[in-house]
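[09:14] KT: can someone run the structure on this one? pasting the chain below
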Amino acid sequence: MKKMRSDKENEVDGLLPEYDFDYGKAKPNRFALMEEQRVVILEPDVAEYFRDSEAVNRVLRALIEAMPQVA
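[09:31] RB: done, C-alpha cells below
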C-alpha cells in the first residue's frame, strides 16, 4: 500500500497527493548526457569531412597535441 502524505506535508511543498511519486522506482534517463559530455553542432561544410564523433575527436586530439603548451 502506498504511503500517503499528510495534509501538513502537502501544505509545505504545495503538491497534491496524486503527484507524490515514488522515485525509488525511477530509471536513469538513457538520453541524458553525462556530466563530462558536451554537444557541439558542426556547420554543414565542416560536417562533410567527418563520418562520426570518433573522427572529430581524433582531429581535435591531434590539434590539441600541436598547440603550444601554456605554463
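[09:33] KT: thanks! The two ends are 62 Å apart (CA to CA).
[09:34] RB: yep, looked fine to me
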